[in-house]
């Protein structure tokens, strides 16, 4: 089914409404391609379509939910918190909503009840419909209220699968050994792998032995959102160079900012040298600007000393003139 929101916040739906997912009484005689307005107690900010259900975020912070229960028309309002965003797992009736206090709640059709218990491997349910091995028996789907920090790295469910063979469906060949990877993670977080997997999904191995294994593992940690340790400036520089070569723009931006924070008089010469040799124009420009800022105190001190010497010379000349006149 399809749901659209107008610029005035009105919701319209069409398609199969046999499970109540359209928000109004529907039968096959009404057709599947005619948009009809859904009556809601407020204006719609965002809408998400599940497999046979629909969730709408309203302007007052409530969520309207309907469908998934074979009812012709049954709209349930979720008002336990003030919500600011909603999301839906593809090809499922699994929904989540974020509150103004950065809490995240999960629920699923046909029981639109917010749940407060979770297991770390519950993310597997959200992967249903994507090209990844799925075994429902591994998760009983218990959900938990969870606080979202500002920094996403090291706190994602993806991090649970970093370097793990569980559900791995792709092997990366590195110089220091094989790395068990997961297509869904790489597809969602890597521009390079997204293109590669889109063009062909038949391969089981990828040769990455041309790259430094330590640096490439740091890149993979970024994809898995598992960068829990602070990287040294050397590691950041190597990761930045690798990301530029692989056209991973998000990683480039991340490492670029972190690298600038670590620029100092001890490492700027080496970073400038690498920037020149690798033709990294943006990094080179920042290094040159930083060098100028570092030299400014020296230049100011030199100017101050010159002015001081000139003042002393003028004073000596004045004293000499007075002495001559006195004589």
Automatic annotation (TrEMBL):
Residues 298-327 are annotated as: Disordered. Residues 168-232 form the BTB domain. InterPro entries: BTB/POZ_dom, RCC1/BLIP-II, Reg_chr_condens, SKP1/BTB/POZ_sf. Gene3D superfamilies: Potassium Channel Kv1.1, Chain A, Regulator of chromosome condensation 1/beta-lactamase-inhibitor protein II. CDD domains: BTB_POZ_ZBTB_KLHL-like. Pfam families: BTB. RCC repeats lie at residues 9-60. This is RCC1 and BTB domain-containing protein 1. The lineage of its organism: Eukaryota, Metazoa, Ecdysozoa, Arthropoda, Hexapoda.
């Amino acid at each position: 089914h399809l749901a659209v929101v107008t610029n005035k916040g009105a919701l319209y739906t069409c398609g199969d409404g046999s499970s109540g997912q359209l928000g109004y009484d529907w039968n096959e005689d009404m057709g599947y391609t005619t948009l009809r307005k859904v009556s809601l107690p407020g204006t719609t900010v965002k809408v998400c379509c599940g497999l046979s259900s629909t969730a709408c975020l309203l302007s007052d912070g409530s969520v309207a939910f309907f469908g998934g229960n074979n009812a012709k028309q049954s709209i349930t309002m979720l008002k336990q918190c003030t919500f600011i965003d909603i999301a839906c797992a593809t090809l499922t009736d699994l929904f989540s909503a974020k509150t103004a206090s950065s809490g995240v709640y999960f629920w699923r059709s046909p029981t639109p009840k917010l749940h407060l218990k979770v297991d770390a491997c519950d993310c597997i349910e959200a992967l249903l419909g994507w090209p990844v091995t799925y075994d429902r028996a591994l998760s009983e789907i218990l959900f938990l209220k969870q606080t979202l920090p500002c920094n996403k790295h090291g706190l994602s469910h993806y991090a649970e699968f970093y370097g793990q063979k569980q559900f791995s469906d792709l092997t990366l060949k590195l110089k220091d050994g094989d790395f068990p990877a997961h297509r869904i993670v790489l597809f969602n977080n890597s521009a390079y792998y997204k293109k590669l997997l889109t063009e062909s999904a038949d391969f089981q191995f990828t040769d990455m032995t041309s790259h430094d294994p330590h640096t490439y593992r740091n890149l993979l940690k970024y994809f898995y959102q598992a960068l829990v340790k602070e990287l040294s400036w050397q590691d950041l520089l190597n990761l930045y160079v690798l990301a530029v070569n692989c056209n991973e723009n998000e990683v480039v931006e991340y490492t670029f900012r972190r690298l600038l924070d670590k620029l100092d008089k001890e490492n700027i010469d080496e970073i400038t040298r690498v920037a020149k040799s690798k033709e990294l124009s943006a990094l080179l420009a920042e290094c040159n600007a930083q060098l100028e800022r570092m030299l400014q105190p020296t230049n100011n001190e030199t100017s101050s000393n010159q002015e001081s010497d000139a003042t002393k010379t003028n004073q000596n000349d004045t004293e000499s003139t007075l002495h001559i006149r006195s004589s």
